[in-house]
Design a protein that fits this description.
The protein is an alpha/beta fold. Helices cover about 40% and strands about 20% of the residues. Helix 7 packs parallel to helix 9.
């Protein structure tokens, strides 16, 4: 499977965390960061790679954190889903300012804002070269946007998931807190699950394992890394 990840893919799914959009602001959306991401997405899309995105909402609202503070988990998760719509629309605006044809597809119906997710419709948009942004997760509480990314990638036959983070791969422990943390260049799905490495949640990793879908975890803050990952260059950590 590692060889499959090294080839230039026809179709990819880029998973962006909500935190990636806020830059150094601490909350919300940093216009410079979202423009930088949009430029990188445009570059790979214009090179002929069919590009889909799933965005989290950690820069606006975290359902799990709200639930742990006493809010009903389902209510908190739905609020988080709505926050992903805000991020999706912001990214769509940034891409369209760069003349990239873009569609936002939502798992929760909001006719005035986006198209309802239908697999065949999403597949058609991608085949036409449009960038497709998936929002509102799976439309169900108790499922993360990581799981939504794995599900959409599998449904649409993506060749890989690119998991964009603030660190340059997967480590034995948090490299920000621990200087002795060691980086993995390659991992198996089972190693991720057994070690409980905080890459993606276990449901997402299991889905990718069952469907042999490679995951590349890399540092989004370094410009050009999305293209490097797509081109099969050795960056970050490959899970396969």
């Amino acid at each position: 499977m590692a060889k499959k990840a090294a080839k230039k893919p026809k179709r990819i799914l880029l998973k962006l965390s909500g935190e990636a959009l806020m830059g150094e602001m601490g909350y919300g959306i940093d216009p410079d960061v979202i423009l930088s991401i949009a430029k990188q997405v445009k570059e790979i899309n214009k090179s002929g790679v069919e590009t889909a995105l799933v965005i989290g909402a950690g820069n606006i609202f975290r359902g799990l954190s709200a639930a742990s503070a006493g809010m009903d988990r389902s209510t908190a998760d739905y609020m988080g889903m709505l926050a992903t719509m805000l991020n999706g629309l912001a990214l769509q605006d940034a891409l369209e300012k760069l003349d990239v044809d873009t569609r936002v597809l939502t798992a929760i119906e909001m006719r005035q804002l986006a198209e309802l997710y239908i697999r065949r419709r999403a597949d058609r948009h991608l085949a036409k070269g449009r960038v497709v942004i998936f929002v509102c997760g799976t439309g169900n509480p108790y499922f993360t946007t990581d799981t939504a990314a794995a599900l959409r990638a599998i449904e649409l036959g993506a060749d890989m998931i690119l998991k964009a983070t603030k660190v340059d791969g997967v480590y034995t422990k948090d490299p920000v807190k621990y200087k002795d943390a060691k980086k993995f260049t390659e991992l198996s799905y089972m190693e991720v699950l057994k070690r409980r490495l905080k890459v993606m949640d276990s449901t997402a990793v299991s889905l990718c394992m069952d469907n042999e879908l490679p995951i590349v975890v890399f540092d989004l803050t370094k410009k050009g890394n999305i293209k490097k990952a797509v081109d099969g260059k050795k960056i970050g950590t490959t899970i396969s």
